[in-house]
Specification:
Elements: E1 5-10, H1 12-19, H2 23-27, H3 36-42, E2 44-52, H4 68-72, H5 80-99, H6 109-115, E3 121-124, H7 134-141, E4 144-148, H8 177-189, E5 192-193, H9 200-207, E6 214-215, H10 232-240, E7 244-247, H11 258-261, H12 267-280, E8 285-287, H13 306-315, H14 320-339
Parallel strand pairs: 1-2, 2-3, 3-4, 4-5, 6-7, 7-8
Helix pairs in contact: 1-5, 6-14
Length: about 350
C-alpha cells in the first residue's frame, strides 16, 4: 500500500483553465504534472484539486519561478470579478472531468471510504468572495470543501505571506474582521481552512478557533529559510490539534540554493518530511505536491515520478508503515474525521 498517493494540493484545474482547450482531452493526455496517464503510472489515486486564480488566463511558466525579482516583489490584489470567473470556470472543469470518468468529486466520508479516487475541491485564496460571503456558499454547492483565505497577495480577509527569501513568515497583519467571519462561516459549512499561504499572524488567528490546523502545501523553516515555510511552533500546533501538513515539492521552498537556479534533488523533500515527522508527529504529515504550480526537483517531471520519492524515503530509513502514513493514510484518516464532523 505504500506506493499509493493522496496529494494534498495540485493546480491542475488552473492549468486546464489557462490552456483554454478541451479540458477532458487535455487531462486525458500526458500533459502537465497531473493527468490521467501520469497519475496512473505514479500511483496517485486522489488529492485536493485547487481553484487558483492567476492574474491572467495563461498556463504557469515555470521558467519564471527562477526569477528572484519576480518572486519577491509584492503581489497585488486581484479583481474579485475576474477571480470569481476563474473559480467558477475551474469548478466547471472539475465537473466535466467527473462526467468523463477521469475523477470523482468527493464531499463526504462515505464516498471517500468507498473510492480512494477522491478529489475534494479546494479554493486557493478567497479573492473571488465578497464581504457578504455569498460566493462561498455557491462554491460549497459546487463541491468546495477546503479554503485558503488568501494566496500570497492581500484580500479583504487578510494578508498573504509574500515569497521572501532569508526570513520567516511574520510579515504583515493577520486576519481582518471579514477574515474572521469567513473562517467562522467555513467552520459552519464544515469547509476545511488551509493556512498554507497565510502569514504567521494569520496562522495563529486561525488557530484561535480551536479546530485542527492544516497547511496543505508547506515546508519547514529549519531546512529552508523562506517565508512560505513553517516554524517549529506552527508544526507542533498542527500536530497537537490533530491537523495535517503536506510537503511542497516546489524547489524554492525546499532548498535555499534553489533561489539561484530553481534546482534541487528529491532528497530535499525527504529532509523536510523527516523534520515534519519529528516536530508535528508521524500522524500529521502527508504530501502536498503543488504539482502544476511549482518547479519540481531533479528527476521528478510529473506525478508519474512519485515512486522515486517513495524509494528515497525508504533509502533514508523511513519504514513501510511510516511511508504509508505519509503517502496516503494520514490524509485519508484526517479527511474521514473532517467529513464526519457533519454539514450544516
Amino acid at each position: 500500500m505504500a506506493g499509493l498517493i493522496f496529494d494534498g494540493h495540485n493546480d491542475a484545474l488552473s492549468r486546464l483553465w489557462g490552456a483554454m482547450g478541451d479540458p477532458v482531452e487535455i487531462f486525458g493526455a500526458a500533459k502537465g504534472h497531473v493527468n490521467v496517464p501520469e497519475c496512473a503510472a505514479g500511483g496517485m489515486k486522489g488529492g485536493f484539486f485547487a481553484l487558483y486564480s492567476p492574474m491572467r488566463r495563461i498556463v504557469f511558466d515555470f521558467t519564471q519561478a527562477f526569477n528572484l525579482d519576480m518572486l519577491t516583489k509584492p503581489m497585488p490584489a486581484i479583481d474579485e470579478d475576474f477571480a470569481l470567473v476563474s473559480a467558477i470556470g475551474q469548478a466547471a472543469i472539475a465537473q466535466k472531468l467527473q462526467e468523463a470518468g477521469h475523477l470523482q468529486i468527493v464531499t463526504d466520508g462515505a464516498s471517500l471510504a468507498r473510492s480512494f479516487v477522491a478529489d475534494p475541491v479546494h479554493r486557493e485564496g478567497a479573492d473571488c468572495i465578497g464581504p457578504d460571503l455569498l460566493a462561498l456558499d455557491a462554491l460549497y454547492a459546487l463541491g468546495l470543501r477546503s479554503l485558503g483565505p488568501v494566496w500570497s497577495r492581500p484580500t479583504i480577509f487578510g494578508d498573504g505571506v509574500p515569497f521572501a527569501f532569508g526570513r520567516d513568515g511574520d510579515i504583515g497583519d493577520g486576519l481582518t474582521d471579514d477574515g474572521k467571519r469567513l473562517v467562522a462561516r467555513c467552520h459552519a459549512l464544515n469547509i476545511m481552512i488551509d493556512t498554507a499561504h497565510l502569514n504567521t499572524k494569520g496562522f495563529w488567528d486561525v488557530a484561535e478557533a480551536g479546530r485542527p490546523l492544516v497547511a496543505t502545501h508547506s515546508n519547514t523553516l529549519a531546512h529552508c529559510m523562506s517565508s512560505r515555510n513553517l516554524d517549529d511552533a506552527q508544526l507542533k500546533a498542527i500536530g497537537e490539534t490533530g491537523g495535517m501538513v503536506g510537503v511542497n515539492f516546489g524547489t524554492v521552498f525546499l532548498d535555499e540554493a534553489a533561489w539561484e537556479d530553481g534546482r534541487c534533488d528529491i532528497d530535499a523533500v525527504v529532509r523536510h518530511l523527516g523534520h515534519m515527522v519529528e516536530t508535528a508527529g508521524e500522524d500529521a504529515v502527508g504530501i502536498g505536491s503543488d504539482f502544476d504550480g511549482a518547479p519540481l526537483p531533479n528527476g521528478m517531471a510529473s506525478a508519474a515520478d512519485l515512486p522515486k520519492l517513495v524509494d528515497a524515503m525508504g533509502d533514508a530509513g523511513f519504514g513501510d508503515a511510516l511511508i504509508a502514513k505519509i503517502t496516503h493514510e494520514n490524509w485519508l484518516a484526517f479527511l474521514g474525521r473532517h467529513f464526519d464532523g457533519g454539514t450544516p
